[in-house]
């Protein structure tokens, strides 16, 4: 009996060990299989991603991807455009509204991926100079102290700059000194304020405790606190005149002293003397009549809308200064018009969810700049763009559905995306200009120009083939699914800024004063003009491209008129 029991015990021990061994082998085999599958998926994903992401960054040989490739990563990126292997529908059907809208729904997900990829690619570029900046930055201005930042004060509000990643003390000092300001104040580690008057309330030094975003170990203010530096010695006086701009000859108002808050009478008055005087007083306009210098803003009495023949001002600057002069010379000083620069988030959630919709390159960012300065409220964005946040668009970091912004930028289309909004401002621009602007943005940023090699490469025709249809389908989708629309043509906005802007503000259920609109007009360009100038005769479009785009233009024009909107401006076609 004991012997049999011993054998049974021995067998059970062996079986237990065997089960343990088999379990271990099973788990190891499963782990290896899981790792192998994960590696395979990552390899497939990287191949698919490189094909999809080639459009914004390279676009070499890539047009519009067949939507089936998004579902099957093993399939190659077959093209819907420019491929002889694809069967094309009849020409009149291929450019019909129904064809464009169905095509748009296929491409929407891919475009969104392109856009987010393009935005995220900008972020690493912005950090490349941090290490160098840390070692080269020098504080050459005298530190004045820590002050309270009261939004009700107008001190240190002459110009405002933001840099979420690279703000340094010297960067802020240089920006303020270049615009002829005496003081530079930093707050929140990333915001720079300029002015000629110190804030009224001092604070404890330890309350300025925010480290500069681009310079470790340096203090850039704090929460509602400003680290203030004196910067007037940073630039030679000769450089201060660099930003003075001649605005023209205008008829002088009947009573100059009532129109302009500050004045100076001086023999042998020069443009530089008057501009320097008005800059120190923090006025954007310097007005010269003989030996008289006046400083102020554009107002209803002096709007700068009706310029006079320059010959009427001949001799005005060198005249003996008779008070009866009918005309005056007007110059724009480096000082920013601050009557419309104050902005904030809505104090209560908006009941109406409004979109500011456009095709990329149609001037959406510029329209946001105008709306924010006219209404005094931030605009939001469906995307996040760090470069735009640095330019003062604080709504970029706010969730796009928070309803704390006056409207939300979007390039999306399609029924689901459109019906999320209660109403929309639909901004339309000439597709020729839009395509060139978006191509420049993709390859040279918001303010640059794409290199000639990019225009001459295969990237450009592929870009036109894929994006031209998007321009048309974007408008058609919003016309079909938009609940309440205000159609604004970019060209009309540039020609008649104040009337069109007033129409946009009223659509947003806001009221605005005439002086504030004049301030917006005085700051109309903001920081959104591309540096340099493209030659006037630059023509990147081939005849085949023009024929394609012109068909889309006619389709959109007919759709607008069918919805009782004004058709496209005549300048769109022929080309």
TrEMBL record:
SUPFAM superfamilies: P-loop containing nucleoside triphosphate hydrolases. It holds the Pfam family WSC. Gene3D superfamilies: P-loop containing nucleotide triphosphate hydrolases. GO terms for molecular function: sulfotransferase activity. It comes from the Eukaryota. Belongs to the WSCD family. This is WSCD1 protein. It comes from Heliornis fulica. The lineage of its organism: Eukaryota, Metazoa, Chordata, Craniata, Vertebrata. The gene is Wscd1.
